[in-house]
Design a protein that fits this description.
Helix content: 40-55%
Distance between the termini: 43 Å
Number of domains: 2
Order of helices and strands: HEEHHH
Number of helices: 4
Structural class: mainly alpha
Radius of gyration: 22 Å
Largest sheet: 2 strands, antiparallel
Strand content: 5-15%
């Protein structure tokens, strides 16, 4: 396929995706993410965020993130299975598991 055919085919495919209303447009946020965000200078409800409680922007979470960066760096270059496990991962898992010690839950799996 020559470049012109390729571009024509891609443009046709994209047009079909847009007509089907399944094309994903990027939406630049103008604020921190939370239950509501600013888009195009307006506050709108964010229904797609995992941050619906707004905890990602909580001052204590931000402080902890800064401490984590200072102590551990930005993170591993890939998943733990490939690049290794940091002691902080094991400590977090131990703390979570211990909070369920008397709950009747017999096992927890972290993936």
């Amino acid at each position: 396929m020559n470049p012109n055919e390729l571009y024509t085919t891609l443009e046709r495919e994209l047009d079909q995706i847009k007509e089907a209303k399944t094309f994903k447009y990027e939406v630049p946020l103008e604020s921190e993410q939370g239950g509501t965000v600013t888009v195009e200078h307006e506050r709108v409800v964010m229904l797609a965020s995992n941050n619906y409680l707004g905890l990602a922007n909580h001052p204590r979470v931000k402080e902890a993130a800064h401490r984590g960066l200072d102590e551990w760096g930005y993170g591993l270059a890939s998943v733990r299975f490939l690049c290794g496990t940091e002691p902080i991962h094991l400590e977090l898992e131990r703390r979570i598991a211990s909070s369920f010690q008397h709950s009747g839950i017999r096992s927890l799996e972290f993936t």
